[in-house]
Amino acid sequence: MKSTAAGVALLLLVLSHSSAKEITQTCWKCSGADCDDPVSSLCSQYSADDGCYTLFNYYTNVTAMGCQSDLDEEFVDDYFHSLLFCNESNCNSLDNLPVPHKCLFCDSSEDPNCATDPSKIELIGNCGVLPYSSCQTRISIEGWTQRSCLSSLERDELEECLAGTGNCTVCTGDYCNREIYPADR
Questions:
Q1: Rounded to an integer, what distance in angstroms lies between the CA atom of residue 159 and that of residue 153?
Q2: What are the boundaries of the signal sequence (predicted)?
Q3: pTM to 2 decimals?
């Protein structure tokens, strides 16, 4: 009987410690004018795949920050191109905001150099639409090479590039999408 009571007590102790450790995600939180001075707090609806988010408006200002688990799916669908997600505690800091980059803009269906000699491409775009200001190079379904700002992609293409599941590569830095893609092309 003593060993059963000790076993139950040990099990309860383990469960209470594991439950306390589940809520470990913290994010910077704010809304509107409060985003000049966000506050770090625990994610109240924490789940194992939780992350932090930053919401930008059309003028690239931060309009909200918080925990991804606080957003409903409809909101994420409506504002996907304006939301930046990250996975570590407090990763949505104002110190970690993306910056604009200059990227090549071309499509090999219009200019073969886009695929074979991107150094000859002269059309440069200023990718300042936050949060997706990085450059990208992708191969379209038709087999054309396309280079542009990440923010210019349609949602399904953007999700594939961000997840690394599409036929694309994402890079950060001015003119970083000037490399041949794929390398063996």
A1: 9
A2: 1-20
A3: 0.75
